[in-house]
């Protein structure tokens, strides 16, 4: 009888008995250079196939790897067309949106969410007739209207069409005056926080992360926030003047200490921090991982995502 | 003694005793969608490491695969920085230049060759401060001058800096009025011809391919032209109104028949035609290959390039 019970439990999808609130499928995890693996994370409520993409640096190759790993049981094009309901773009650097542009001819109609500065670059630089085709619903005529641009406003929660999730945007500083965005995703009472490229407050002097921690801290304390996705582009050896609005392990831990002072050190203990955007020059990825693991004062649970895998939070 | 001779011959690099004039390493071979494998071909005189890239859709991942295959014995970044002396961009669609942009922060100073319309899009849309950084030597200040823009003029031969090769550009029609480019590469008395995306003259009504065959034909007849790289994006079933300036197997063979009438059918027999830019939707790649092999009236040698391999011509 016990054996039968175990067997039955093994057959039930994990989301039916687990506590997880979100499923995340990383489509790309690296901080530049490698075109096959650039920042993009599919996120859906656990048990749902209604995903949005948080950034879209690499799309097709990430889905391909997820299909190869048995995470999706559809051809790549069907996952692209049916499971992805929209794109949230943190900032308009090509390593965060190339996959969206390159796959646009075969994509279905959906919404692109971003701060006005991000949507402006999409409209004026990428979805143009000189460089590509205008698949947006604004800009150069003829306007093909495959994608609806939805402008985000800092701090204002809006629904993510085709899903049960919502998003609230927070501005980030990515090498002043260049701006990036954090997305606070909500599904019911559960939250997930994704940060696009960001510098540290100590370097950027803009207080963007301190402001974000004021929102995130209480959500961690009450157990509602399930994970934070945040970048660590460079190792500690990177000189300050060539950070270009990015974090190192030391700077990240400095920021997490500040978050701990809002959330409480107990709440942050073993809290999932997903490390994004390690730049793959030389052996930097390994160095960044080692430096983070060697110096983790808040004792967060460091997660190094793999392209085409499944994460549950 | 015979055994020893065989052993010695096996140890001599192929270029020392073969007739080959050019080495080509495909960095990406697909016609869109898959960010890990978009149009780009490194070409150098046989025996030299002074390559240029013909288009640059995928760069890093293509070099990575070539390194994995033992073709280069350097880290990816060193191949990028040292072996690639310049980029020739056929037209400014993102699937032909994304790899160049994404790798630009880690690249060394080199030249980008293109027709004025291509360079204009690079300058105004991609190498801008709103979308990326201006690594060009023209356009929005501050101008970082990593890349020198070299404007090509139709029919005029110019040297490719850092190599012993030259290039002559020929305009192509890619869905009128959209323009693309063919590059005729010369090293000494040997030639290689690479066409960017192109429609058929029968569809485009511009006579661009007929004009190109007037140059290519005599070079085939005299044995100087070693190979032609040309696209076949869609299978024969693609409706004419959705060709978007691309070729099908039937349209390609129609054009090669016209080339045969200039070059002579004998000269074209077994002549290497490298098929680029098959669009990977559904099973299209396999269908295109099958249709080409099933109907090859000029009996050309059809070559389907693989990413990260080495081709000798």
Description:
2 copies of one chain form a homodimer. Chain A has a single domain, classed as Ribonuclease Z/Hydroxyacylglutathione hydrolase-like (Metallo-beta-lactamase, Chain A), CATH 3.60.15.10. Helices cover 31% and strands 24% of the residues of chain A. The first copy, chain A, has 11 helices and 14 strands. Chain A has helices at residues 2-11, 14-17, 60-68, 76-83, 98-103, 116-126, 201-204, 208-221, 249-263, 265-268, 284-294; strands spanning 22-28, 40-45, 51-54, 84-88, 110-114, 147-151, 157-159, 166-173, 179-187, 190-195, 225-231, 272-276, 301-303, 311-312. The longest helix of chain A has 15 residues, at 249-263. Chain A is globular and about 55 Å long. Chain A starts with a helix and ends with a strand. The interface between A and B is large, with 37 and 37 residues.
Q: Which structural class should the secondary elements of chain A be placed in?
A: alpha/beta
Task: Tell me the count of domains of chain A.
Answer: 1
Q: Just give the CATH class of chain A.
A: Alpha Beta
CATH superfamily of chain A: Ribonuclease Z/Hydroxyacylglutathione hydrolase-like
- Which runs of chain A of at least 5 residues are low in confidence (pLDDT < 50)? none
What is the averaged pLDDT score of chain A?
95
Task: Please tell me what the overall shape of chain A is.
Answer: globular
Oligomer: homodimer
Q: How many strands, what sense, and barrel or not for the largest sheet of chain A? A: 7 strands, mixed
Question: What is the fold named in CATH at topology level of chain A?
Answer: Metallo-beta-lactamase, Chain A
Q: How do the SSEs of chain A run, as a string of H and E?
A: HHEEEHHEHEHEEEEEHHEHHEHEE
How big a fraction of the residues of chain A is strand? 15-25%
What is the gyration radius of chain A calculated from CA atoms?
19 Å
Largest interface: A-B, 37 and 37 residues
Major sheet: arrangement of strands of chain A: 6-5-4-3-2-1-14
The helix content of chain A, as a percent range, equals 25-40%
- The strand count of chain A comes to 14
Alpha carbon gap, first and last residue of chain A: 32 Å
């Amino acid at each position: 009888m016990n054996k039968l019970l175990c067997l039955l439990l093994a057959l039930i999808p994990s989301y039916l008995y687990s506590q997880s609130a979100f499923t995340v499928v990383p489509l790309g995890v690296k901080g530049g250079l490698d075109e096959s693996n650039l920042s993009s994370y599919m996120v859906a409520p656990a048990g749902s196939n209604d995903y949005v993409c948080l950034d879209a640096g690499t799309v097709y190759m990430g889905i391909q790897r997820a299909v190869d790993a048995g995470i999706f049981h559809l051809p790549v094009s069907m996952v692209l067309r049916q499971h992805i309901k929209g794109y949230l773009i943190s900032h308009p650097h090509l390593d965060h949106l190339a996959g969206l542009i390159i796959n646009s001819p075969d994509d279905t109609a959906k919404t692109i969410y971003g701060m006005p500065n991000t949507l402006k670059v999409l409209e004026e630089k990428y979805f143009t007739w000189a460089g590509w085709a205008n698949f947006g619903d604004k800009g150069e005529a003829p306007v093909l209207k495959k994608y609806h641009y939805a402008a985000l406003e800092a701090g204002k929660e809006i629904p993510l069409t085709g899903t049960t999730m919502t998003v609230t945007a927070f501005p980030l500083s990515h090498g002043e005056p260049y701006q990036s965005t954090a997305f606070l995703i909500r599904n019911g009472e559960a939250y997930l926080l994704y940060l696009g490229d960001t510098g540290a407050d100590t370097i950027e002097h803009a207080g963007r992360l301190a402001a974000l921690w004021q929102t995130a801290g209480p959500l961690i304390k009450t157990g509602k926030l399930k994970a934070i996705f945040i970048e660590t582009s460079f190792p500690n050896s990177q000189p300050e003047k060539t950070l270009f609005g990015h974090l190192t392990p030391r700077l990240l831990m400095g920021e997490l200490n500040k978050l701990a002072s809002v959330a409480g050190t107990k709440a942050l203990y073993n809290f999932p921090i997903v490390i994004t955007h390690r730049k793959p020059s030389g052996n930097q990825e390994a160095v960044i991982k080692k430096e983070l693991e060697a110096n983790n004062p808040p004792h967060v649970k460091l997660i190094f995502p793999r392209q085409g895998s499944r994460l549950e939070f």
